Fold:
Amino acid sequence: GLFSMGLRTVAAVEKDIPLLEEQRKISLAQTSQIYAADGSLLAYLHGVENRTVISGKAIPESLKHAVIAVEDERFYQHTGVDAEGVGRALLTNLQSGRIREGFSTITMQLVGNMYFDRTDISLKRKFQEMTLAWQYEKKYSKGEILDMYLNTVYFGSNAYGVEAAARTYFDKEPSQLTLAESALLAGLPQLP
Structure:
């Protein structure tokens, strides 16, 4: 029954399956920095999103490991969609009669943040997100995906990405975060 339902659902959305090559080019909004003549930082200016994209080398390993532990513990084992997570969420949601648990992986969250309206919780949007996540995993390495995610995810208080989050909550660069600060930041994207 579930297999039949799955096949019918795939057939229904097949004509709407997105291709990564057809998605719009993403240009992330970033914060401007104003410097004095002596090189000292005077101010940060940002619009709707407070974000500074940084290299993955500038993100501490402790923060990367903490985010994976909280958001997607099987990140290195799946190919964009975690079948075990899908099954667990499906069972939990069927038993409760409502949506209580999600199954988005870090890759799915990244493509969702970049290409979709995350308030849309329809099955169609979820299948499209899964399709793009599979394509992302073929095009980018796990390290690149994690770095992109950590530069786009919302941490609350208008902080998008780890650099803005470290500056907003601890007034420091991500490379200066302690283990405890990394752990705190890792928990924020679930309920910012």
Observations:
- The helical segments are 2-13, 61-71, 83-96, 106-115, 123-139, 142-152, 162-170, 179-187.
